[in-house]
UniProtKB/TrEMBL annotation:
CDD domains for this protein: HTH_ARSR (cd00090)
Segments for region (Disordered): 1-41
Domain HTH arsR-type: 41-85
GO function terms (MF aspect): DNA-binding transcription factor activity
Protein name per Swiss-Prot or TrEMBL: Transcriptional regulator
One Pfam short name: HTH_5
Length: 264
Protein backbone atom coordinates (compact mmCIF):
# COMPACT_ATOMS: atom_id res chain seq x y z
CA UNK A 1 0.00 0.00 0.00
CA UNK A 2 1.29 3.45 -0.82
CA UNK A 3 2.06 5.65 2.15
CA UNK A 4 2.17 9.38 2.48
CA UNK A 5 4.41 11.10 4.98
CA UNK A 6 3.22 14.20 6.78
CA UNK A 7 5.47 17.01 7.88
CA UNK A 8 5.82 15.27 11.25
CA UNK A 9 7.57 12.42 9.41
CA UNK A 10 5.05 9.72 10.26
CA UNK A 11 3.78 7.49 7.48
CA UNK A 12 0.07 7.26 6.85
CA UNK A 13 -1.84 5.14 4.42
CA UNK A 14 -2.80 6.99 1.26
CA UNK A 15 -6.07 5.08 1.03
CA UNK A 16 -6.96 5.81 4.66
CA UNK A 17 -6.16 9.48 4.28
CA UNK A 18 -7.93 9.99 0.97
CA UNK A 19 -11.05 8.29 2.26
CA UNK A 20 -11.11 10.35 5.44
CA UNK A 21 -11.03 13.98 4.48
CA UNK A 22 -12.08 15.36 7.85
CA UNK A 23 -9.62 17.02 10.18
CA UNK A 24 -9.64 15.33 13.58
CA UNK A 25 -8.15 17.26 16.48
CA UNK A 26 -7.54 15.52 19.77
CA UNK A 27 -7.38 17.28 23.10
CA UNK A 28 -3.77 17.81 24.07
CA UNK A 29 -2.50 17.27 20.53
CA UNK A 30 0.70 19.16 19.85
CA UNK A 31 0.36 22.20 17.54
CA UNK A 32 2.75 20.71 14.99
CA UNK A 33 0.62 17.56 14.88
CA UNK A 34 -2.49 19.67 14.20
CA UNK A 35 -0.60 21.40 11.41
CA UNK A 36 0.43 18.04 9.94
CA UNK A 37 -3.18 16.85 10.03
CA UNK A 38 -4.28 20.01 8.25
CA UNK A 39 -1.58 19.52 5.65
CA UNK A 40 -2.78 15.98 4.95
CA UNK A 41 -6.40 17.12 4.76
CA UNK A 42 -5.51 19.81 2.21
CA UNK A 43 -3.45 17.32 0.24
CA UNK A 44 -6.46 15.05 0.13
CA UNK A 45 -8.58 17.96 -1.17
CA UNK A 46 -6.08 18.51 -3.97
CA UNK A 47 -6.24 14.85 -4.99
CA UNK A 48 -10.05 14.81 -4.71
CA UNK A 49 -10.33 17.90 -6.90
CA UNK A 50 -8.29 16.16 -9.61
CA UNK A 51 -10.53 13.09 -9.29
CA UNK A 52 -13.68 15.20 -9.63
CA UNK A 53 -12.50 17.51 -12.41
CA UNK A 54 -9.88 15.51 -14.29
CA UNK A 55 -6.30 16.53 -15.10
CA UNK A 56 -5.78 20.04 -13.75
CA UNK A 57 -3.20 22.80 -13.86
CA UNK A 58 -1.78 24.42 -10.76
CA UNK A 59 -3.84 27.52 -11.54
CA UNK A 60 -7.03 25.45 -11.88
CA UNK A 61 -6.48 23.80 -8.52
CA UNK A 62 -5.59 27.05 -6.77
CA UNK A 63 -8.78 28.69 -8.04
CA UNK A 64 -11.03 25.77 -7.11
CA UNK A 65 -9.57 25.26 -3.63
CA UNK A 66 -8.89 28.85 -2.66
CA UNK A 67 -5.15 28.21 -2.22
CA UNK A 68 -2.08 29.99 -3.47
CA UNK A 69 -0.33 28.40 -6.41
CA UNK A 70 2.78 27.98 -4.25
CA UNK A 71 0.75 25.94 -1.73
CA UNK A 72 -0.76 23.82 -4.48
CA UNK A 73 2.69 23.10 -5.93
CA UNK A 74 3.92 22.00 -2.50
CA UNK A 75 1.07 19.53 -2.11
CA UNK A 76 1.45 18.29 -5.68
CA UNK A 77 5.14 17.63 -5.12
CA UNK A 78 4.24 15.41 -2.15
CA UNK A 79 1.50 13.63 -4.11
CA UNK A 80 3.85 13.02 -7.04
CA UNK A 81 6.44 11.63 -4.63
CA UNK A 82 3.81 9.23 -3.25
CA UNK A 83 2.78 8.16 -6.79
CA UNK A 84 -0.74 9.50 -6.24
CA UNK A 85 -0.60 12.03 -9.11
CA UNK A 86 1.67 12.49 -12.10
CA UNK A 87 2.48 15.51 -14.27
CA UNK A 88 1.48 15.42 -17.93
CA UNK A 89 1.60 17.74 -20.88
CA UNK A 90 -1.79 19.32 -21.39
CA UNK A 91 -3.56 18.16 -24.53
CA UNK A 92 -4.24 20.94 -26.99
CA UNK A 93 -7.19 20.67 -29.33
CA UNK A 94 -7.14 22.77 -32.49
CA UNK A 95 -4.32 25.13 -33.42
CA UNK A 96 -1.53 25.20 -30.86
CA UNK A 97 -0.53 28.64 -29.61
CA UNK A 98 3.04 29.75 -29.09
CA UNK A 99 4.92 28.64 -26.05
CA UNK A 100 5.06 25.40 -24.13
CA UNK A 101 1.73 23.76 -23.30
CA UNK A 102 0.69 24.03 -19.66
CA UNK A 103 1.50 21.14 -17.35
CA UNK A 104 -1.45 19.32 -15.84
CA UNK A 105 -1.59 16.85 -12.98
CA UNK A 106 -3.59 13.62 -13.24
CA UNK A 107 -4.26 10.77 -10.84
CA UNK A 108 -2.14 7.65 -11.28
CA UNK A 109 -3.73 4.19 -11.10
CA UNK A 110 -2.45 4.00 -7.53
CA UNK A 111 -4.02 7.34 -6.70
CA UNK A 112 -7.35 6.37 -8.23
CA UNK A 113 -7.38 3.10 -6.31
CA UNK A 114 -6.90 5.01 -3.06
CA UNK A 115 -10.44 6.35 -3.38
CA UNK A 116 -13.44 4.16 -2.66
CA UNK A 117 -14.22 1.96 -5.64
CA UNK A 118 -17.14 -0.28 -6.52
CA UNK A 119 -15.04 -3.39 -6.96
CA UNK A 120 -16.73 -5.23 -4.07
CA UNK A 121 -20.19 -4.62 -5.51
CA UNK A 122 -18.98 -5.63 -8.96
CA UNK A 123 -17.53 -8.89 -7.63
CA UNK A 124 -20.68 -9.71 -5.66
CA UNK A 125 -22.86 -8.93 -8.69
CA UNK A 126 -20.70 -11.19 -10.84
CA UNK A 127 -20.99 -14.07 -8.37
CA UNK A 128 -24.75 -13.65 -8.18
CA UNK A 129 -24.89 -13.76 -11.97
CA UNK A 130 -22.78 -16.93 -11.99
CA UNK A 131 -25.09 -18.51 -9.42
CA UNK A 132 -28.23 -17.60 -11.36
CA UNK A 133 -26.97 -18.62 -14.80
CA UNK A 134 -24.41 -21.35 -14.28
CA UNK A 135 -25.68 -23.78 -11.68
CA UNK A 136 -26.44 -22.07 -8.41
CA UNK A 137 -24.27 -22.54 -5.34
CA UNK A 138 -22.24 -25.33 -6.96
CA UNK A 139 -21.03 -22.86 -9.58
CA UNK A 140 -19.95 -20.37 -6.89
CA UNK A 141 -18.10 -23.15 -5.06
CA UNK A 142 -16.34 -24.15 -8.28
CA UNK A 143 -15.31 -20.54 -8.89
CA UNK A 144 -14.03 -20.13 -5.33
CA UNK A 145 -11.97 -23.31 -5.55
CA UNK A 146 -10.53 -22.40 -8.95
CA UNK A 147 -9.60 -18.93 -7.67
CA UNK A 148 -7.83 -20.33 -4.62
CA UNK A 149 -6.06 -22.99 -6.68
CA UNK A 150 -4.38 -20.25 -8.73
CA UNK A 151 -3.38 -18.32 -5.60
CA UNK A 152 -2.13 -21.48 -3.94
CA UNK A 153 0.73 -21.98 -6.40
CA UNK A 154 2.85 -19.36 -4.66
CA UNK A 155 1.77 -20.55 -1.22
CA UNK A 156 2.67 -24.15 -2.07
CA UNK A 157 6.24 -23.22 -3.01
CA UNK A 158 6.68 -21.39 0.27
CA UNK A 159 5.25 -24.22 2.38
CA UNK A 160 7.08 -27.02 0.61
CA UNK A 161 10.37 -25.17 1.00
CA UNK A 162 9.99 -24.95 4.79
CA UNK A 163 10.67 -27.49 7.53
CA UNK A 164 7.49 -29.18 8.83
CA UNK A 165 7.52 -27.17 12.05
CA UNK A 166 7.87 -23.92 10.07
CA UNK A 167 5.16 -24.49 7.48
CA UNK A 168 2.45 -22.43 9.18
CA UNK A 169 4.90 -19.54 9.49
CA UNK A 170 5.90 -19.91 5.83
CA UNK A 171 2.23 -19.87 4.78
CA UNK A 172 1.64 -16.76 6.89
CA UNK A 173 4.50 -14.94 5.14
CA UNK A 174 3.15 -15.95 1.72
CA UNK A 175 -0.33 -14.74 2.65
CA UNK A 176 1.10 -11.45 3.90
CA UNK A 177 2.72 -10.91 0.51
CA UNK A 178 -0.82 -11.10 -0.93
CA UNK A 179 -2.14 -8.47 1.48
CA UNK A 180 -3.59 -10.67 4.24
CA UNK A 181 -1.28 -9.41 7.05
CA UNK A 182 -0.97 -12.95 8.39
CA UNK A 183 0.90 -14.33 11.38
CA UNK A 184 1.38 -17.77 12.90
CA UNK A 185 1.56 -18.36 16.63
CA UNK A 186 1.64 -21.25 19.05
CA UNK A 187 -1.60 -22.47 20.56
CA UNK A 188 -2.54 -25.35 22.88
CA UNK A 189 -1.95 -28.62 21.00
CA UNK A 190 -1.20 -26.82 17.76
CA UNK A 191 -0.87 -23.43 16.07
CA UNK A 192 -3.11 -20.59 15.00
CA UNK A 193 -2.85 -18.93 11.61
CA UNK A 194 -4.21 -15.39 11.94
CA UNK A 195 -5.10 -13.13 9.01
CA UNK A 196 -5.52 -9.57 10.24
CA UNK A 197 -6.80 -8.29 6.91
CA UNK A 198 -8.97 -9.81 4.18
CA UNK A 199 -9.06 -8.12 0.76
CA UNK A 200 -12.33 -9.88 -0.11
CA UNK A 201 -14.12 -9.63 3.24
CA UNK A 202 -17.10 -7.62 1.97
CA UNK A 203 -17.77 -10.13 -0.81
CA UNK A 204 -17.18 -13.11 1.50
CA UNK A 205 -19.92 -11.78 3.79
CA UNK A 206 -22.36 -12.66 1.02
CA UNK A 207 -20.48 -15.66 -0.35
CA UNK A 208 -18.89 -17.74 2.46
CA UNK A 209 -17.81 -20.21 -0.22
CA UNK A 210 -14.73 -18.01 -0.61
CA UNK A 211 -13.76 -18.68 3.00
CA UNK A 212 -14.53 -22.37 2.67
CA UNK A 213 -12.32 -22.74 -0.40
CA UNK A 214 -9.50 -20.94 1.40
CA UNK A 215 -9.81 -23.30 4.38
CA UNK A 216 -9.66 -26.31 2.05
CA UNK A 217 -6.48 -24.98 0.45
CA UNK A 218 -4.84 -24.43 3.85
CA UNK A 219 -5.63 -28.03 4.73
CA UNK A 220 -4.12 -29.31 1.49
CA UNK A 221 -1.01 -27.16 1.79
CA UNK A 222 -0.31 -28.10 5.40
CA UNK A 223 -1.14 -31.78 4.98
CA UNK A 224 -3.64 -31.91 7.83
CA UNK A 225 -7.21 -30.94 8.59
CA UNK A 226 -7.58 -27.40 9.87
CA UNK A 227 -10.42 -25.70 11.72
CA UNK A 228 -11.61 -22.20 10.92
CA UNK A 229 -12.44 -20.56 14.26
CA UNK A 230 -13.31 -17.05 13.12
CA UNK A 231 -13.47 -14.86 10.04
CA UNK A 232 -13.50 -11.14 9.37
CA UNK A 233 -16.37 -11.74 6.93
CA UNK A 234 -18.44 -13.15 9.80
CA UNK A 235 -17.82 -10.06 11.91
CA UNK A 236 -14.76 -11.22 13.84
CA UNK A 237 -11.70 -9.01 14.14
CA UNK A 238 -9.31 -11.58 12.69
CA UNK A 239 -9.58 -14.66 10.47
CA UNK A 240 -8.28 -17.44 12.73
CA UNK A 241 -7.48 -20.98 11.61
CA UNK A 242 -6.44 -23.69 14.06
CA UNK A 243 -3.75 -26.11 12.89
CA UNK A 244 -3.48 -29.15 15.20
CA UNK A 245 -0.12 -30.57 16.22
CA UNK A 246 0.78 -33.92 14.68
CA UNK A 247 -0.06 -35.85 17.86
CA UNK A 248 -3.56 -34.40 17.85
CA UNK A 249 -4.43 -34.76 14.18
CA UNK A 250 -7.74 -36.39 13.40
CA UNK A 251 -8.40 -38.64 10.45
CA UNK A 252 -8.75 -37.14 7.01
CA UNK A 253 -12.43 -38.01 7.04
CA UNK A 254 -13.09 -35.57 9.87
CA UNK A 255 -13.81 -32.28 8.18
CA UNK A 256 -13.11 -28.82 9.50
CA UNK A 257 -16.01 -26.75 10.82
CA UNK A 258 -17.77 -24.65 8.24
CA UNK A 259 -15.65 -21.69 7.23
CA UNK A 260 -17.03 -18.30 8.13
CA UNK A 261 -18.79 -19.54 11.28
CA UNK A 262 -17.62 -19.69 14.86
CA UNK A 263 -18.06 -23.24 16.16
CA UNK A 264 -21.04 -23.57 18.49
Amino acid sequence: MQRTVGSDGRGLSVSEELRNNGVVKNVGEAPQEELATGERSTRNRVARSILDHGPSTVADLAARLGLTQAAVRRHLDALVSDDVVEPREQRVYGARTRGRPAKVFALTDCGRDAFDQSYDKLAADALRWIASREGGEDAVVAFARARMAVQADAYRKAVEGAAPEKRAEALAKALSADGYAATARSAPVGEQLCQHHCPVAHVAEQFPQLCEAETEIFSQLLGTHVQRLATIAHGDGVCTTFIPAAAHQTTENESASTAGRNPA
